[in-house]
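Hey Z.,

So I finally got round to the dinuclear copper ion thing we talked about over coffee. Here's the setup:
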Amino acid sequence: MKMSMRMASLLATVSFGVLVAGQAWSAESLQDVMKRRGLTEKDVLAASKTYTPTGKRDEFIAFSSGGQSGQVIIYGIPSMRILKYVAVFTPEPWQGYGFDDESKRVLKEGSMVDGREITFGDTHHPAISETNGEYDGQFLFINDKNTPRIAVIDLKDFETKQIVRNPILKSEHGGTFVSPNTDYIIEAAQYAAPLEDNFVPLEQFNEKYRGAVTYWKFNRAKGRVEPENSFSIELPPYSQDLSDFGKGPSDGFSFTNSFCAERYVGGIERGRPPFEAGCSAKDTDFLHVVNWKKAEELFKAGKTKKINGHAVIDMATAAKEGVLVLIPEPKSPHGVDVTPDGKQIVVAGKLDTHASVYSFEKIQAAIKAGKFSGKDEYGIPIIAMADALAKQVEIGLGPLHTQFDSKPCVAYTSVYVDSQVAKWDYCEGKILDKMSVHYNIGHLMAMEGDSTKPAGKYVVALNKLAIDRFNPVGPLHPQNHQLIDASNDKMQLLYDMPLPLGEPHYAVAIAADKLKPHIRYPHGTDSRTEEKHPAAVRAGSEHTDTKPGKVEVFGTVIRSHITPEIIEVTEGDEVSIHLTNLERAQDETHGFAVSKHNVNLSLEPGKTASATFKANKAGVYPYYCTEFCSALHLEMQGYLLVKPANYKSTGVKAKEGVSYSKADYDARVKGNIDTQAVIDSVVGYITSVNFKDFPQAVALVEDATDQLGFAKAAKEKSEEFAKKQDWHNAALWAEQWFQYQVKTADIGLRAKTYLEQNGAKKVQ
Ligand code: K7E
Ligand code: CUA
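And the result:
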């Protein structure tokens, strides 16, 4: 019969799949496989350190910058499996980011610049929120070097909640880094420019171009940056680079280094040597040491000037009040990294073979004693390098960035030109081990390696080039993240992972068990504001409001239909469609796309999202769910009918494709009764074991119970029509009843398989 799809055969298919998987072990031995694939014992050992069997999870979660994609990449360690790209500064359709009204609002906070829409971002440094200097797993921040701005990502749902644009910088780099309790997030300039938004000729570079460092105030309870409580310190035009916050004894201070303290202005076309020559001519640049607690006091006392509405402490005030001092650092430095105990600051220079270790105690002593070697041209006191330096350690050619191990005094530094990772002791000042990585390492990442409590175990080398490492995919190559086992004295290279989404500069990794994200949203949540969405509705209260020129739809989605299924509007109307996902089940996301209207929503369980667009052209536009959510996913569809403005109905009556008889109805009902017997047997199994001890199974049972409730409602509707002898509608509702049974059985079987595989026991 036309509507039938036998439950028994469906069940047979499902359980057959499980059986085959269970028997998939071949007779090949490990030696056979090693021979066949040309693997050495060392390879197999490395593989056993990264291989993560199906169903098992990673120990650490890495958040990597997504470079020019403007996004964040998340992967697991040691498996190196990519888990998600989080949309931040650029539209990303899968997450509906930049396609639903709610996320467009967030994106627009940072993308509209002087009437231009910026759809590109250059992310560099992600930072995880900290409590007492330890990663707490609540928030992630990331900066955009190109259009200076930072973003707040809430790790409850891994969504971008806020973007704040820097009001004075035209270019930045030294962000984001957080203070030990995440009360401030740092964002430091890169290429100097006038802090106001006006034109100033390059000839006035020294006098009018400036750098700055911004301290963004973070309100943890609200999970938002507060621009009105944030301030900046004006800096000389020294091309500020990376930054780090002090901790422990150095808490209250921050450190920002620089390159091109020469303040050279290029101009190849004017016959001058290029920037690269003029910017590296001198032997030293400047480490900026900022007493930000003091700066905060000045800000609160109103000792600031306003530039573009933003509070700025000028250089003269900063120098006079002891907020800012400079220390020479060799030569074109890049990374500045504070040791876990907060006592020392490691600076590595691209054109110097050393890592320079500065002592915070010495710096403090010099400041207290007023022992300065002089002032720079802008009146900022300079501490002589010798008065601040603890030691210099020969690392290799082009040391860049430093991270720390769980073992005291152990650091890892990336060495760009040598393409090596150096493991060294910053207390004793000696090299412990060196390992070659592929070309050319930029940042490296140790587990929680920039916190007060590094977790050790692994280091990842973030290599700029892949060259010949992977199968070629054209002239544009991915980057290569190399996983290193750092648990022993000698480092061991374990795995190469291609990262194909822009250039990841920096990454941070946190112990996976510190992350506790939501599985679902409370019903009707606007995920971007984290509040109840004003347009959320429950099942049965879906409706459409029509006003002249505007149609507003308040609908729902659930396996496997969209309510409403037909939306009629008139050409020229503004259409707003608000949809709430009624699902409670884990991972039952529905999408919503409308033909030719650039609409795609991602509706995770409980979420409400909206699409607003102009129906500017009469026509027929199918809409559908874009996530393969169930067996009837393709049927999760509907029509947007855009009528011409002057359209008159022709009064044509619809003719059904097929009409159903009493015999059809009876056959469907009989099938449903058989199906119910199958469901009952699955339910019988589940309730015969200790399923309540398995939260996963309990969630599935809840979902199955929901579906069974829907089946009951559809059954009642079919019986009502049968009573009226409307066999056509009775048969159709009987079919809907069956569809809910299929969903129930699908979920019930998932629960049964889960319980069987996880050792559920019979209960009496
Ligand atoms: Cu070294 Cu932007 Cu931190 Cu690139 S940065 S490598
Ligand atoms: Cu919902 Cu496919």
